[in-house]
Amino acid sequence: MTQADKTDAETSKPSNFLRQIIEADLSKGTYAHRRWSGAPADHKTHQQGDLDPAKIRTRFPPEPNGYLHVGHAKSICLNFGLAKDYGGVCHLRFDDTNPEKEDQRYVDAIIDAVQWLGFDWEANGTTHRYQASDYFDFMYRCAEYLVSNDLAYVDEQSPEDMRINRGDFSTPGKDSPFRGRTIDENLARFRAMRAGELPDGAAVLRAKIDMASPNINLRDPAIYRIRHATHHHTGDRWCIYPMYTFAHPIEDALENITHSICTLEFEDQRPFYDWLLARLEAGGLINTPAPKQYEFARLNLTYVVTSKRKLAQLVNEKHVAGWDDPRMPTIVGLRRRGYTPDAMRLFAERIGVTKSDSWIDYSTLEGCLRDTLDAEAARAMAVLDPIPLHIENWDALMGAGHLEPCTAPVHPHHPERGNRHFNFGADLFIERADYEESPPKGYFRLYPGNSVRLKYGFVVTCVGAERDAAGNITRVIAQVIPDTKSGTPGASSVKVKGVITWVGASDGIKAPVNLYDRLFLDAQPDAGGKDFTAVLNPDSLRVIEAMLEPSLAHAAPGTNFQFERLGYFVSDRETHQPGHPVFNRSVGLKDSWTPGS
Ligand code: ATP
Ligand code: MG
Hints:
The protein is of the alpha/beta class.
């Protein structure tokens, strides 16, 4: 039995190591006595507040330097989901401590993505949306506290010497010649750094821990660097910026975070996280007990790359049309492809959280989309590779030009959603693959002499096909069997083995459909530092002219449908307009993908 097979008694969700940790903390009352001042704050301010109304606090801390992807979706569902399940609050925190790479448009896109996934940060009358740059003053105060207690020093070695003296896995590091500076000297130099008296790279502030530690992250890590750069929120107020490893634990502490959940690559930094917060706690600077960091395996999805840098490369080199290209694993791309918040949340639940890295098969994601859309998506008929079908006895039997109205349920399990309407006549379109002159064994569709039902319409018997001078089939010919219309008493009088879908020539709409496929042919496109652009799937987008049933013409942009027999399709959010439909294929009906299929 794996972790994910067990069910959590409290929430009836699959249990996992994080749920167990949280449940243990709740039953021990680890955080039951903490106070919360209503906003992120130091120890003294929080102490003036009431008991924290949130039983736990988690956070999702993106750097606003790109669009979120499916891996972030896992982290969002995890952090917001845990808070929701355990009476807690999840903070949306923009980790904007790096002045150079951040941008407001990414902030807006991140807000949009988290809300789209169905989460928000309003709780107990407070908006828990924060930005780390608001904490720069407090971080500076913490740094001065460390310096004043001989726990940090200003190092002015060259970056090269600093690297050499750090040692490596087999060699202990060497103390910097600046390590023995007095507290007063360190304070003066740190203030000089802050005052802009030193150029970029001339000095760093380092925590004073142990240059011989077996964990390289504890060999006096740098905690402040000089960067004469304009920050998108704080402008030119600062020319020194905290390093991530220093900033992150402090952000968590100010916000009263209880469980700080991050990906496995931060495991080695946990000792420094604890070292720092223990000192700040002892100094009375932060609330107590301090937050704890827990690591889980990041999402690796086959046929997908999930690094912002690599996604940016796909956009910049124009391998895709943009960040929201439906082939992109970004949240905006997935949404445009037809993925829904339900599907994404189901995916996060199905893959669960573990402590060891693995690859999740892309078909797991697709399965979640099928499984959530099946119960929801309106049905429609479409013909993707149309060939005309002519009913040669129609006019004689029914009257010249007669159109017979047909109906079909919007959803087979939801009669309350009503019916679709379309017309059957002498001329229709069917899929090219639904006619075979010499049928293979087990083929129940149209071939000379065989009868099939045209779904929601009549039973017809195939007569043959017409060809052009080059021998290509131009039209399939059939005869209707009278009184076999679906839903009438005679419908079952003729038994057929095949049912095929169709669109009427009188009311069908011609429309472009984007047939998207996996972006890469290789299941692990970037494994081992491979050039992922060398394994792009040349057929990841095929645009076809399809015939659609009339109900699709006026669909709102971004509406999901099941095209019967064909798969799930969505009206494109950017280009679809009522009257001028454009559809994207989200996923086929069955999991039958092979490269190039
Ligand atoms: P990238 O490497 O693509 O730039 P990142 O980790 O630098 O991503 P952040 O904005 O720092 O991006 O990430 C915000 C949060 O999302 C972090 O807590 C991080 O752990 C989580 N996250 C990022 N990628 C994944 C992933 N593939 N699986 C799970 N969580 C992820
Ligand atoms: Mg990051």
